[in-house]
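Allow me, if you will, to draw on your knowledge of protein folds for a short while. I have a record of one protein: its chain in single-letter code and its fold written as discrete structure tokens. Could you please explain, in whatever detail you think fit, how the structure tokens follow from the sequence? The record follows directly beneath this note:
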Amino acid sequence: MRKRIIYNKSHGMRLSNFDYNLPRELIAQEPMKPRDHSRLLILDRNSGDIEHKKFYNIVKYFKKGDVLVMNNSRVFPARLIGKRKESGGKVEVFLLRLYRPHRSRDVALQRLYCDAGGEAWQCLIGAKRIKEELVVLFEQGLKGEVVKNNMDGTYEVSFNKKGKAMMKVVEKVGQTPLPPYIKRVDIRKQKTDSRNYQTVYADKNKIGSVAAPTAGFHFTPELIQKLKVKGVQIEYITLHVGLGTFAPVKTDDITKHKMHAEFVEIDKDVLKRIIKAKKEKRRIIAVGTTSVRTLEAVFSEIVNRKSEIEDYQGWVDIFIYPGYKFKVADAMITNFHLPKSTLLMLVSAMAGKENIDKAYKSAINKGYRFYSYGDAMFIS
């Protein structure tokens, strides 16, 4: 099941509208310790007013009955380093998702972490002269062969190991899929990233993301407990972060950008509780752009259904940018995003582009830390 939604095409918004200059030294290379001691910019999207706090102060901005929605997908070590069988040259293969093109209607088998095994994986490949039939050798006897160029920057790669056997090897030899702007040369730091580049509430039964829902990095178990004590309702949904979240926009007219689909799972009881809260006009606060996109895509499809609500599983590729009218999310917690990214476009839709421009300028002037391991913003 896939759902693609494009809004407000008539605006003809340009990619250059979402560009900004960021000093290199503000790109965070390490996470904040403790997690909830990162800085927090509070942005009132109605007035445009800005406050500067620490993330642990966020509790006072919640009230009893608020619903906090978190993405509990777990990151797996999707970055594989191998060598060409013929020349021995280095090849980096980045696993995106299990790919069964002839069984695409079978949702259960489309899950990225699939016990049933798969015929091939959709991958990004870092190497020159990539061609079909290229064979790449990895540690632990793993071997991959490029079987198809998907002509969208990704490749279909067939491996000699399937299902659980494949994932056992990946868990042993794969590396945490850090973004390219985080530089690592120390192997010890690479090992700590496997723990740091994960939310504290990531579900071990929801493995499937190739990039973390980084807005959740700022939460600690203690902070979550404080929110619960205050009467905040915590709900977990799942979007397995894939290429749709971090793929660059390559079209000057952003309305022509096409999002890659990502897999979503939401329990029916969670759906019912969020619908109930929305009807009661309680505030729905999403943690991260992945939670926002999941809520908006799924609820726009099910909210008017007359049939009984069931567990939701499906692919979504909703693209949200200024002009979009939010149906579910009333507020959001987010990090500071890359220029020209779909994530920056989404927060601009939520808060208003002028407000976001003002907030980013303020954050840069005050030396906030940006991107995955950086500081946070609460758009209220």
Remarks:
- The first strand starts at residue 2 and ends at 3.
- The radius of gyration is 21 Å.
